[in-house]
Amino acid sequence: MIFRLWMEDPLHTTAPARLTPLIVGVTALGSAPVVLLAVLVGAGLLMARHATRQLKALLGVSVLTEALNLLLKSLIHRQRPHLWAGLWSLTDYSFPSGHSMAAMAIYGLLAYLLSLYYPREAWLIKLGAAGLILAIGASRMLLGVHWPTDVLGGYAAGACVLCAGVYWYEGHTGRIDLLKPHANGRGDA
Fold first, then answer.
1. Which one from 77, 82, 146, 182 is the annotated catalytic residue?
2. How many whole angstroms separate alpha carbon 121 and alpha carbon 179?
3. ∠ CA 61-66-70 to the nearest 5 degrees?
4. Is 99 tagged catalytic?
5. What is the CB-side half-sphere exposure of residue 179 using CA atoms within 13 A?
6. Which of 12, 99, 172, 182 is catalytic?
7. How many domains does the chain have?
8. Which domain holds residue 141?
9. Is 99 domain-assigned?
């Protein structure tokens, strides 16, 4: 109750009604059709560049994100909040936020891969992705379809998938030596 008064009610009341179309537009950027379109465009560009490992990383992260989201929702069974009259009546479970998870994992990986091609602009690419990821999570709370902990849980799960994808990619490109034992054979430095 205290958390709701401290976080959620101010979030909802600070967004003027005239911003609702913008908030809906931002949340749509984390929806399954838009994320799928981003994955397909990214995959197409990677195929055109014959970037097989990057393509595998993108597809792997995409599949793992969806599978983990479905698994966590089916295990946790957290009901969606009924804080105020929303634009939608969603019936699936709330935790974790699939929009936040997909934004973190997939948009995060796309930003990482894009920054490999444009290293001078990497900071701007990553900053833009971070802003988009945060905006998508905030939009889910502003629309009243997720608790803040659902969004944070989505970010955490998405970050795990993102790190796993980058770890796999980096280990398979020889850019870092994460997957090989250290020279002393014990695995420590």
1. 146
2. 29
3. 145
4. yes
5. 11
6. 99
7. 1
8. 38-78+93-172
9. yes
77 is an active site residue: no
**Amino acid residing at 153:** G
This prediction has a pTM of 0.79
Which amino acid, residue 7? M
Contacts of 45 (CB under 8 A, 6+ apart): none
Q: Can you tell me the distance from the alpha carbon of 112 to that of 108, in angstroms, rounded to the nearest whole number?
A: 6
Torsion of CA 76, 166, 122, 43, to 10 degrees: -90
How many CB atoms lie under 10 A from the CB of residue 95? 23
Residue 13 has a pLDDT of: 57
pLDDT along the chain (189 residues), means of 10: 49 63 84 90 92 91 91 79 59 78 95 91 93 90 80 93 91 59 46
4 within domain boundaries:
no
